[in-house]
Write a structure and sequence with these properties.
single chain; about 325 residues; alpha/beta; D-Maltodextrin-Binding Protein, domain 2; 2 domains; 12 helices; 10 strands; about 45% helix
Length: about 325
């Protein structure tokens, strides 16, 4: 016996089947959202997280709290988020250090998390270029001057925020490209490395523009080169290393928001949509740019592509340059 299903009945049936999905989408978020930053307060990731959290909360209708969980090159915070309930209420905001750490830390660091397997991309809200800066005491203002000075002064030290950081990679790539005899001095974080450079403890420093911008504008640090493929709107007058004849020193930093694997697609989509809206707000863009950060955004796939590319690239570079973290 055959039954005819009218258009009205088909619509009713669709409504019954779709109702649970619609309820799930509407139910998120149902409580506080925690944005975990795997670095101490005050640095670039923390600034980006707090600017976003402030504007994201009213859009989601729930509090958005930033929680700092530093350690193991972002892997401790990443592990905490990966083990959280996959419901979209616990997120990670991290720089691309997380893609590098598995290649430079001992196996099992951070609880043995596999960052590509255990986390899902939500959005890449921003990027920040890396820059080589010098103390005014060194008396140079471009790479040509630095090359001349460094050849007269073998063993000239350059600082970075730590062994295995993107800035350490930039320094070692610069050494390989120029053949200079430079000594790496690692510090425990961006803030200590900037303090050392400002005090003249090290005359050269690889750092993110996000931390150095105010000191560059005040003349306390001299920008020599960006480690980017092209110039940055944040420092439009500062040429890249490639422009100055030093090739193969291209390292940048991006920020990514991740969720535990298994988080519903509806929650990922809502978070991506709302964070994209937040970073388009004029006052948010102004605050990020003022902090040395370039707003980005886009689909989750943008972040997925960043993560895949950096995982492969830094794995190869870590082997070639023999870079290990503490």
């Amino acid at each position: 016996m055959k039954f005819k299903v009218s258009a009205v009945h088909r619509l009713s049936l669709w409504a019954v089947l779709a109702a649970p999905l619609m309820v799930c989408a509407q139910a998120f978020p149902s409580k506080q959202v925690t944005l975990v930053v795997p670095f101490p307060p005050g640095g670039g990731p923390d600034v980006v997280a707090r600017v976003i959290a402030e504007k994201l909360a009213p859009r989601l209708g729930q509090p958005v709290v930033v929680e700092n969980r530093p350690g193991a090159g972002a892997l401790l915070g990443a592990s905490f988020v990966a083990k959280a309930a996959p419901d979209g209420h616990t997120l990670l905001l991290t720089p691309n250090t997380m893609a590098i750490s598995p290649h430079v830390l001992p196996p099992g660091a951070g609880g043995g998390i596999d960052v590509n397997r255990d986390l899902m991309p939500v959005i890449a809200p921003a990027t920040t270029p890396l820059v080589l800066v010098a103390s005014p005491q060194l008396g140079v203002n471009n790479l040509k001057g630095l090359l001349e000075q460094a050849r007269k002064q073998p063993g000239l030290a350059y600082g970075s925020p730590g062994n295995g950081s993107p800035m350490h990679f930039a320094g070692e790539m610069f050494k390989r490209s120029t053949g200079l005899d430079l000594m790496h001095v690692p510090y425990r974080g961006v803030a200590p490395s900037l303090t050392a450079a400002l005090a003249g403890e090290v005359k050269l420093l690889y750092t993110g523009v996000s931390g150095a911008l105010q000191h560059i504008k005040s003349g306390k640090l001299v920008p020599l080169a960006l480690t980017e493929r092209s110039r940055s709107s944040l420092l439009p007058d500062v040429p890249t290393a490639t422009e100055q004849g030093v090739a193969q020193v291209e390292v940048n930093a991006w920020y990514g928001v991740f969720a535990p694997v298994g988080t519903p697609a509806a929650a990922i989509q809502r978070l991506n949509q709302e964070i994209n809206a937040v970073i388009k707000l004029p006052d948010v863009r102004e605050r990020l740019v003022g902090a040395g950060v370039e707003p980005l955004g886009g689909a989750p796939q943008v972040l997925a592509d960043f993560m895949k590319a950096d995982t492969q690239r830094y794995g190869q570079l870590a082997r070639e340059l023999n870079i290990k973290a503490d």
